[in-house]
């Protein structure tokens, strides 16, 4: 039996890749896609939207048109994600959230939905980045207490949030491993006479330029050597395929709040 999936905000950059990934996935059946009420992509064929030719299903502004779905996938905006969470709870649907930019309180609020429905929240659905989170844990344990830790991320000019959700999670993983409070040790960019580096800080640097899909590096720097751990995404399909993996996994999960590490078995 195929898992029935619907894509929320399906006319976006990720939405279009998600349509293609769903159509091409052998264990997934695409049952619909939503766009917002004033969108210029209302009643457009989903396949045409994704650039893969007509598939005979059209975009809709009505979430009710997605009731056939077992799992919904949301790569939209903070405001839209919360509307989608409320709808999924009302209709007892599972939700994969790839949207980023949530603050701590919003993440706690999303977590609460896990008491009613299955929810995956993943700032990065690629396999590589989720392995990188594991490498950060190992590295921070080994050398994090005496190296300078800096996180760099680069994305396309259209990205709205900074630092990226992935960079924030990288910082969180490192801070948790070292027993530091990220809200106290994070430094977001530097300017002017900053003074010497405070040893326990975790720095974040952001670049926004052109069509960069997504690049992340963690630096663990000492005097005389430094370790850099880098991930580069070169296609949004890598995120879309990861999201399908999450949707398939979530279709068999109980209500709960999960991350991509659960999906990939990296928490075992
Ligand atoms: N987890 C991961 O691996 C990844 C996460 N992301 C995250 O996914 C999100 C989307 O990224 P991207 O696809 O590049 O962005 P886009 O702006 O291209 O797409 C967002 C989509 O969401 C729709 N949308 C936004 N607000 C609303 C709303 N209030 N109601 C209904 N629909 C809405 C937009 O519609 P409209 O165009 O009409 O405004 C658009 O179709 C971002 O938060 C990004 O950081 C991105 C890549 C990978
Ligand atoms: O907006 C994007 O494009 C991306 N956003 C995610 C993030 O904020 O970490 C993941 C990916 O790097 C692409």
From TrEMBL:
NAD(+) binds at residues 9-14, 98-100, 122-125. It comes from Thalassotalea insulae. InterPro entries: DapB_C, DapB_N, DapB_N_CS, DHDPR_bac, NAD(P)-bd_dom_sf. Pfam families: DapB_C, DapB_N. (S)-2,3,4,5-tetrahydrodipicolinate binds at residues 156, 165-166. It is an enzyme of class 1 (oxidoreductase). Pathway: Amino-acid biosynthesis; L-lysine biosynthesis via DAP pathway; (S)-tetrahydrodipicolinate from L-aspartate: step 4/4. Signal peptide: none annotated. PANTHER family: 4-HYDROXY-TETRAHYDRODIPICOLINATE REDUCTASE 1, CHLOROPLASTIC-RELATED, DIHYDRODIPICOLINATE REDUCTASE. Belongs to the DapB family. It is found in: Cytoplasm. Homotetramer. Its EC number is 1.17.1.8. NADP(+) binds at residue 36. The active site is at 155 (proton donor/acceptor), 159 (proton donor). This is 4-hydroxy-tetrahydrodipicolinate reductase. CDD domains: DHDPR_N. Catalyzes the conversion of 4-hydroxy-tetrahydrodipicolinate (HTPA) to tetrahydrodipicolinate. Residues 128-264 form the Dihydrodipicolinate reductase C-terminal domain. Residues 3-124 form the Dihydrodipicolinate reductase N-terminal domain. It catalyses: (S)-2,3,4,5-tetrahydrodipicolinate + NAD(+) + H2O = (2S,4S)-4-hydroxy-2,3,4,5-tetrahydrodipicolinate + NADH + H(+); (S)-2,3,4,5-tetrahydrodipicolinate + NADP(+) + H2O = (2S,4S)-4-hydroxy-2,3,4,5-tetrahydrodipicolinate + NADPH + H(+). Keywords: Amino-acid biosynthesis, Cytoplasm, Diaminopimelate biosynthesis, Lysine biosynthesis, NAD, NADP, Oxidoreductase.
